[in-house]
Amino acid sequence: MKPHEQDEINRILSASIDAEDARAGGVAYSTTYNPDDASPIPGEHSWQHDVYWHNPEFEPNDPRSGITDQLLLLTGAAGGGKSRVGLELLHRYMSYYPGATGIMLRKKAVDAGISLVPFLKHTVIPESNSKAVVKLSGRYFDYPNDSILYWRGMKDDDQREAVRSIGQRGGVDIILIEEANAFSWLDFQELLARLRGTAGDFRQVILMTNPDAPTHWINEKLILGGLATVVYSGAQDNAKNSPEYIKTLSLLTGVMKDRLVDGLWVMAEGVIYDNFAPEYNVTDDAEYDPAREVIWGVDDGYAAGGGPGSANYRPRVILPGQVTAQGGIDIFNEYYATQELSERSVDNVLDWSYKEPDVAYVDSAAAELKGRIWDRGILSVGATHKVQEGIKNVRRLICDGQDVRLLRIHPRCVNLIRELQSYRYDDNSKVATVGEQKAKKIDDHGPDCLRYMTWHLRTG
Fold first, then answer.
1. For all residues of the chain together, what is the average pLDDT?
2. Do both 384 and 355 map to the same domain?
3. What is the DSSP secondary structure assignment for residue 456, as one 8-state letter?
4. Which pairs with CB-CB distance under 8 Å and at least 24 residues apart come from 276-280?
């Protein structure tokens, strides 16, 4: 990402935070539905109406009559009409502002062609007062006012490059992201860098998604972090839903009910460390103690990939910790780095104002990294235990059968805390011989470090 693009991203995010009124400040905006209120008001006070006519001083076809904040998130339970509302806002913008450039995306471009294009072509456009012609060869809608709306994806480098090449007059005016939870934080930042068009009175990114894990960047940054205006909806909000569909939703249970019926951002089933509780395991009491020795847990990596939460994100991680008198461990800091030489990572952590470690417990396959640590006069020990046995030991430290918690993590370790809540079993893996599924190779970097550095603390 180029420096001027990062500056533009920072400007957008700062503007979202600093806006004075509630909706620009990221406070959830909904007078009709949220997960705590199952009785939305129908008719002209519906959530769709509030989004479309938020500023009634403007004419109905004027995009400024709706919510114009730069980051607009449409979320909540399934069946609320998020896709229709998002596409109607997008189409109204493209029809109103001559020469506008828009992009609508799914993670995979082929999915955008299957879902977004037919819905816009056969439903949204015919029901509006303006038209557009689909150009399948170029994958765009051509509007009579010279506006162009592209559909794209960001699955790989080729699709990313196709997005980078879009932009009349040097930039994009409006972006719509369907199933936004499939996109990484890096994807989102790259799209923000394209948002510098000049055709309209405002620029906007519209994200549409059902809830995901509470550690997902959409929840952490856009909802809890206050970067976006958030509009909630649910199936009961959508008058087009049949009674049969509502009845079908009532059959859902577990995490699917929590997310798709109740609209809650909750952890998925299959989480490995489901006994990890930030309110108990995360504490300032895990701060560095100069009177105790230091050990490291080290997992090797290099690739930035699609950023945290993606399968090709492989950072190098160093966790400094201290064994407690009770046989537990305090993790007081973390170091995550990508595209960095191993000796630089080691030296950067050694430059912190802590004791040098007595021993570093390192990924057994990381021979070169172990050598770098050894060259600094630090004993390095390879991890040789089975993954499942190591996981069992970490689970015991998180919370044992007597409700004793021997793992404490300082709040500054935000990456480790996130990964412990999202590290999960692979649903597609074969059951291992010990009767457990294999762990998925995503969000395993900090948890792997914990396995290495706590194996010697096992009991029994």
1. 83
2. yes
3. G
4. 276/398, 276/399, 276/420, 276/421, 277/399, 278/417, 278/421, 280/399, 280/405
Residue given tokens 């506008």 in the structure block? 100
Spatial CA neighbour of 424 closest among 394, 451, 449, 447? 447
Beta strands in 288-401 (DSSP E): 295-299, 316-323, 329-331, 335-337, 359-362, 379-382
CA distance 42 to 28: 19
pLDDT at 353 over 80: yes
Angstrom distance (rounded) from CA 307 to CA 445: 13
Residue pointed to by tokens 């046989």: 327
Give the pTM: 0.61
C-beta neighbour count of 171 within 10 angstroms: 17
Question: What's the CA gap between 14 and 24, in Å, rounded?
Answer: 11
Containing H/E element for 176?
strand 174-178
Residues 6+ apart with CB under 8 A from 136: none
Q: For 21-30, 53-62, 131-140, 396-405, which range has the lowest pLDDT when averaged over its residues?
A: 21-30
Do the domain assignments include residue 266?
Answer: no
Per-state percent for the chain, helix, strand, coil, to nearest 5: 35, 15, 50
The pLDDT of residue 235: 78
Q: How far is CA 383 from CA 252, 335, 362, 380, 440, in A?
A: 42, 19, 6, 10, 19
Q: What CATH number corresponds to the domain at position 23?
A: 3.40.50.300
pLDDT confidence of residue 27:
31
- State how far Cα 10 lies from the chain centre: 18
Residue whose C-alpha is closest to residue 319's, from 297, 300, 336, 338:
297
In sequence order, which ranges of 402-444 are alpha helices (DSSP H)?
A: 414-422
Instruction: Classify the C-alpha dihedral 225-228-231-233 as positive or negative.
Output: negative
Query: What b/e readout covers 333-349, taking b as 16+ CB neighbours within 10 angstroms?
Result: bbbbbeeeebeebbeeb
Average pLDDT estimate for 430-452? 78
Q: Which residues are CB-contacts of 60 (< 8 A; sequence separation ≥ 6)? A: 53
CB 448, CB 364: distance < 8 Å: no
The token pair at 252 is 């859902």
Structural domain boundaries, residue 57: 3-260
What is the residue-wise DSSP string for 88-138? HHHHHHHHHSTT-EEEEE-SSHHHHHHHHHHHIIIIITTTSS---EEETTT
Same domain, 308 and 345: yes
Give me the amino acid identity at 79.
G
Helices then strands, each counted (H, E), the chain: 15, 15
